[in-house]
Amino acid sequence: MSTTVSHSSPVTATVEAPLLERMLFPVRNGVPQAPWLMAFLGTAVGASIFAVYRWYQQTYSFTVGLDYFEPEFQTYWMNLFYAQMLLIMIIGAVSVPWLWFTRPKVIDITPLKELGVYNLILTFMAVGSIMVVAVLGLFVEADAAWHQVTIRDTDFTPTHIGLFYFAIPLGAVGIVIGFVWLHTRMPDFNKRVSLPLCLMASAPILIMPNLGLNEWGHTFFYAEELFAAPIHWGFVTLGWGLFAMGGFLLQCFARIRVLTLTLAEVEARDELAEAA
Question: What are phi and psi for residue 28, nearest 5 degrees?
Fold first, then answer.
């Protein structure tokens, strides 16, 4: 797809930019850099949230988390469930409409700034990959172990509240927000739909039917919690959806190649102008 971009020279001194912009889009010697400081801060914040959540599970799961019908379970776990589901729904309900209704009619972005945005996207995906590993280790594996050693009474258990009602919905809302932002702010995606990113955003939604089947089956007729159990087969949809990340990366790299060539042409033109 052909996209018109500005060929103006790379911009103004970065010192004049706000601190947050310099952290998100660092530039060194006129070349956009990966925002490693923001990556470190994002990883630290995510790790802290998951660490506190894991501590909470370790502390209260076996003391007040074994029986849904006990008053203590309602206090320590269902209140947490209601709070985090409300927070996630508010984030999605506010962010998506705001991104859509504030979208610019004309996307005017220099090649330098656009290249910096792609650096930010790739860095964000790297941080997200660390968070996925944390979710797999701290929540998914813990959920299977929990149901192997305790009696399942309802769909609301300490591990389910952390996995199915926190980690996965939070990731799903984050991908949807990123999907809307990318298609309303970036020139290469503004007039088309990225199918790989669409598959990634759809993956958490597509596992919902199997999630309902899984919980119903485990409650009434299937006690085994091995991941290879047939009742779990539908969950591979989530993994297959995430494989689409490779296609999205190829789309990003193709655009990055165009932008780097554009910047090289601008630099060569400026050097010729100065020599003349």
Answer: -130, 125
41 lies in some domain: yes
Torsion of CA 184, 189, 194, 196, to 10 degrees: -100
Percent of the chain with pLDDT over 90: 40
* CB distance 114 to 187 below 8 Å: yes
Residue 22 lies in a domain: no
Nearest to 175 by CA among 157, 153, 210, 202: 202
101: left (phi over 0), alpha (psi -120 to 50) or beta: alpha
Judge whether 226 and 193 are in contact, CB under 8 Å.
no
**What pLDDT does residue 152 have?**
63
Task: Classify residue 28: in a domain, yes or no.
Answer: no
Is there a contact between 123 and 252 (Cβ–Cβ < 8 Å)? no
* Phi–psi pair at 31, nearest 5 degrees: -115, 125
> How do residues 32-44 score in pLDDT, each as one tens digit?
888 999 899 989 9
How many domains does the chain divide into?
Answer: 1
28 sits in which H/E element: strand 27-28
Q: Give 225's contacts (C-beta < 8 A, 6+ positions apart).
A: 144, 147, 148, 218
Q: Domain residues for 49?
A: 36-275
Distances, alpha carbon 110 to alpha carbons 18, 85, 123, 130, in Å: 18, 39, 20, 31
What are residue 103's phi and psi, to 5 degrees?
-65, 140
Where helices occur in 102-207 by DSSP H, the ranges are 111-135, 141-149, 158-162, 168-185, 195-206
